[in-house]
Design a protein that fits this description.
- This protein is α/β, with parallel strands linked by helices.
- It has 2 domains: 184 residues, Nucleotidyltransferase, domain 5 (2-Layer Sandwich), CATH 3.30.420.10; 76 residues, no CATH class.
- It contains 9 helices and 8 strands.
- The protein has a 5-stranded mixed beta sheet with strand order 3-2-1-4-5, sandwiched between helices. A 3-stranded antiparallel beta sheet has the order 6-7-8.
- A hairpin with a 6-residue loop joins strand 6 and strand 7.
- The relative contact order is 0.12.
Length: 274
């Protein structure tokens, strides 16, 4: 049996525990049980009451949406782990997580609090699917879950940084990544990504530019190399007669700003603004 696990954490109060001893505490556990083809079967979710901070920090609440009320009457970590272990069953399982950070947190917190969890038994295998997926793509950089899903042509469901939804979306990504058609699916997703910015001699049509300019802004990931439009012999940001636009960058799902140069003194074309 395969289980995908995700944890959400709250920071500890320095007045109660030193940061070097325990920087974070688990406040939510999400898990998804998968079949042999990594298809999601059922889900587990439980809130955990932090022991060393009575308040969910504001930045954590904004990130996860987990409020003080959600954890104030929740069980402490030992009871939460007991419930998770019962749900996982006694037949043995392999556990997957997005990076090694959740396993590291579980080990550190259980060690500090003196909790004996079967999930940390040396017979239980933990797998870092973030690293596995990165190697599948031949990607040098670490990918976030949402960007990894976009690379596979998937859209995240539910709320990001919700342990239950993150575990479920990770399971969906696993199912896709280990499917026979995964390579073709990625190629299709890449092609679809660039449909909004086709290669056209001299740049992008004005109607396409206006459509792209209406899209929400994002962090520019860096210069485009073969990124879907013709390069202009014009330094970025020096054309006063341009039309602003944005297009999704397929490498990490963010958006790239560019300008369509309409100045007669310059070679018309679309080029990045950095």
């Amino acid at each position: 049996m395969s289980i995908f696990i995700d944890l959400e954490m709250n920071t500890t109060d320095v007045r109660l525990v030193h940061k070097k001893d325990l920087r974070n505490e688990i406040m939510e556990i999400g898990a998804v049980r998968m079949d042999d083809a990594f298809h999601p079967l059922d889900r587990f979710r439980i809130f955990v009451r932090p022991q060393y901070n009575g308040v969910i920090e504001r930045k954590i609440y904004k990130l996860t949406g987990i409020s003080n009320g959600a954890v104030s009457d929740a069980v402490y970590l030992p009871e939460a782990l007991d419930a998770l272990e019962v749900w996982c069953g006694s037949d043995g399982c392999e556990i997957y997580a997005w990076s090694n950070s959740d396993l590291t947190q579980l080990r550190k917190e259980c060690g500090f609090k003196g909790i004996d969890s079967a999930l940390l038994d040396e017979m239980v295998q933990w797998h870092d699917f973030q690293e596995d997926f990165r190697q599948m793509l031949g990607e040098k950089n670490i990918l976030s879950l949402s960007n990894a899903m976009h690379r596979a042509g998937l859209e995240p469901e539910g709320c990001l940084h919700d342990a239950s939804w993150d575990a479920y979306n990770s399971a969906r990504l696993m199912e896709t990544a280990y499917s026979p058609n995964f390579a073709a699916d990625v190629e299709k997703a890449q092609a679809a990504c660039y449909q909004e910015a086709p290669k056209i001699q001299g740049g992008l049509p004005l109607d396409v530019m206006k459509k792209l300019a209406a899209r929400p802004p994002g962090r520019p990931p860096g210069p485009l190399v073969g990124g879907g439009w013709a390069a202009a012999e014009q330094p970025a940001g020096t054309c006063d007669g341009g039309v602003m636009g944005r297009s999704k960058d397929c490498d990490d799902g963010t958006f790239v700003e560019f300008v369509l140069c309409t100045d007669a003194d310059h070679l018309p074309g679309a080029f990045p603004r950095w």
